[in-house]
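Sample A.
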Amino acid sequence: MSSGSDIDQSNPEFETWSLDPVYRTTIEINGRLYQQWALENGTSFSPVDEDERERLDRVHNVFKLVFDNRLIFPPVNNPQKILDCGFGSAAWAVEAAERYSNCEVIGVDISPHMMPEETPTNLWLQIDDLNQPFTFQTNEFDFIQSRDVMGGIKKDRWSSYVKDCVRILKPGGWLQLVEIYPMVQSDNGMIDDNHILRQVSKNYFSSIEDTKDPRAPLKLDSMMREAGLVELGSRMVQLHLNGWSNVERDRLIGEKYGEVFKDCIEGLLQIPFKDKFGMSINEVRVMAARFRQEVDNKSLKPYFGL
């Protein structure tokens, strides 16, 4: 995927293209910066400012706790080429490049705004749209990571997206998909439609499902099978939204992720809720404040499926 990409000149496999200014243009909405191209094309509704970069780094650290510091789950030994789809702040890609120093790591994302200023010499970050067919060669990568891209992949792209990933894997290569199912659940069943946690979740589904598929995280196993992968393994884990667990590890994860999510909820909702429901920023702020208050209620035992 090289069109419109920033590519390190030191890699002989790639030409260096100047990045089209359209990808760098941002628009400020209620104090947050968004990529104008992404909004106009319905690609992403998430901010691309420093606060979002910090949030993505914090989420990466939470995922490290959830996954016991593993970057790669399947048995991948001495990979030569890795692809990170939707690199965001590039936290995962940087760690993968540092951990596998003899491996070429490539990251692809639509936004250049949250790239780190310095990266390992074996990491190349490219700007491109994952909704378009891949231009990578067939049988090119030993391992592909795709994490938390539900908000960027269009609903009619998911099947071909997974098939694209499979096509560019080497024989015996591995694909790792990690997505959050964005419907707040309750470990004790206390959350119902009277709770703002459930109301916001349902409204979020409604606000994006014309163009996105918020249920895609539930379909990953079947999409991988349809794409021809074998030796599949899938697992759902609870991503707690506060420290309600009596297990110290889970309590820590819940406390950290709850704080991250409370910080991001307003920026996440303001564009889709304005477009779908005509809500003002003040209305979104009131809803977000109620959401944050309820997130802190340990008796509800709230979590996302991951």
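Sample B.
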Amino acid sequence: MPRDPLIGLVGKPSSGKSTTLNSLTDATSKETTHPQRAIGYLQIACACRRFGVTDRCKPNYGSCENGTRSVPIELLDVAGLVPGAHEGKGLGNKFLDDLRHADALIHVVDVSGTTDAEGKATRGYDPTVDIQWLRSEIELWIEGNLMERWGSIKRRHIATKSSASETLQAQFSGYGSTTSLINSTLDSLSLKTPLESWTPETIHRVVVAFVSTKFPTVLALNKIDHEDASANIARIAKAYASEPLVLTSALNEVFLRKLAKQGYIRYLPGSDNIETRDDLIEMGEEDGGGLKELDEKLKARIEDLKDMLLYRFGGTGVVQVLSRAAEMLGLVPVFPVKNAHAFSISGNSSDNAAGSGPVFRDCVLVRRGTTVKEVARKLIGDAPLAFVEGPGGIKVSEDEVVGVGKFDVLSFKLGR
């Protein structure tokens, strides 16, 4: 069965990695079978908006607010990293072992420059260094493992008359590689030299390309509200102009979600707007939306957050980080339903005839390029599939490729 995507959060100690993880989850979502894994929530445009049934959308997991759906996605809290991890320094071996399970990475960078390479308090540190050495540590780890065995790898490659792709896949499978990923890596380099003639420089190029392909990375520039952050943001944006960058303030996202949960403010995670009791009363809601009264200290802090963070940067950026990671992975939301006419979980439309039954209860994330048949296999395994229906009961070929707004609402009918 195709496994669900896994996004790893990496970063040096005190960069805000754990706070970023907390800002992407909630207190109940961390109860998984793996102590370092948690369930985050990816915001997508739900199919309910497209079909005008937002009032009836009731997800089994996550939530849906006016057509903006929060879909569960698994996150991995990768052990803290320090320079020399590939040599076993710090939690190096643990970090690198955790890392190999991830499909994409979110590198949380302390853009304030107030922590050094090992996470110790300082001032004026250049965070571009962190980006460079984290990537280098991963490359050195994989390259070191490869070079230790290169003599025997080369002899076996010649003896078995394998292709470069087959030999590399055998070596990189432990890092979660696939044949298609290896082919993409080699194609990007346009190598003409036979593998048995590769020099150390060629092997290094292959490893660098493999790491780039296997671990696409979003740079989450955290602590943007610090006074020293602006200069560092500009420096990183210039040095890594081609990299996906997102400006974040994880600590403030956690703070705002906590206030919303306690009933002090109205706040949608990731938005650029906060509404207080006073705001809602001014807007005509006599009871202030049922929100609690804020004391003067909280009022002042919220006003500062609005001015210095939400209005200036358009939000805390945390939700956008997860969206960028999903975008890099090419994730497509698919909505399986039993009733292709009413979009319900029931095969009988009588319970939805009055337009009151819940719709689009489920949503799964698949990779771009996935076929309808592959979606079926992910959902129902090897159960016999008779046919597939789309909205309105229109038959859909198993060979069609799913996409956003295209073959993404599917009803699978079992039988032979």
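B remarks: Residues 128-148 form the longest helix (21 residues). The longest strand covers residues 68-77.
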